[in-house]
Amino acid sequence: MLRNPSFDIGMHFPNKSQFKEAVIHYGCKLGRKIWFKKNDKNRVRAACEEGCPFVIYASRIDESPTLVIKTMNLEHDCSVDQKLFWMNSTFMAQKYSNELRADPDWSVKGFTAAIQRDFGLEPSSQQIYRARKKACTLNKYDFVD
User: What whole-number distance in Å separates Cα of residue 60 and Cα of residue 70?
Assistant: First the structure.
């Protein structure tokens, strides 16, 4: 689902963190600055910069942790941005941890090329180094019973 996130009214997410992760991935994929305007235990509203009509709103179903999309407008009037708040070393580490597990010696150039291919963004070499370090830490904990 996260490779090409798509949303529909009535779509369910098992919990708030999965919904937010999908919205963040969507924003990074399109190169848009998406912010969470409302974010409490019952609802999440994400919007783009001022004047852009993009909005997506999901709220909990009764007392369960499941969120359902109630309102959305996926149209954008804003421009694509190369500097995204969410496209940080933690996001990159989580996104590419499997690739780094398969090839621990994955070069910085290869990692950068993958990000450029997938997101059309140019990360700094420092971001790549931090992402590799975080991914290694994530992968260590994956193997612990």
Answer: 10
